[in-house]
Amino acid sequence: MSLRRAAAVLLPAGLLAALAACSPGATGSAGHAAGTATPISSPSAVNSATPSASPVAGIPAAQRQAAMDWAAHAGESPRADQAVVVQSAPGNTARLLWQAEQTGDVCWAEPSGGSVASGCLKAADLGAGTAPGLHVFGDALPTADGQLLEVLFRADGETVARLSCGPATVVPQQVAEFEVNGVRRTFYLAAIDRHTGGSYTARVQRAGAAAADSLLLYAEAHGSC
User: Under DSSP, is residue 122 helix (H, G, I), strand (E, B) or coil?
Assistant: First the structure.
């Protein structure tokens, strides 16, 4: 699929520039498409958003409003004006994730200084009957304490119980689920050690049965697992 990167980049220089390209089905630098950076104006009334399982809704009102204004202008407004706040813990960067009502595209927005970066993964690029698989979606972002990298990824046609890299095991947090072209796309956040990269083994449920999959994640040390 062909994706274009948004204008704002949240990764520090030299950190995981190739992350999204390392997973099958993730194209471009971060699995983002049709992006823009919208300046933030003074706070105003905000479109309603439905929080995810995450306990913290960490997007300021002005930035959320800017994202929803961009979505309306682009014809990518959320279904029923609802967007999911994706944030695993207080202090970590929060993102918005939603499915557009008119197009079925999966869209995102994330704060970047005085702007908000927004874009969509086109439904047309996610084919019907897609084979089950795992795909990085978005940038890997350092956590607030700088010790971990937070990765947003999607599972097509399966659900993920855990990721493992050698003895290290990570239980990802399910944050959203959208049906696109007849395939259930489940989105997860996983915080990985910033020094432990490579092909993570994923334990998944597929068609009601346990199965194994893999997700290639680059960290500051490549090929650790």
Answer: coil
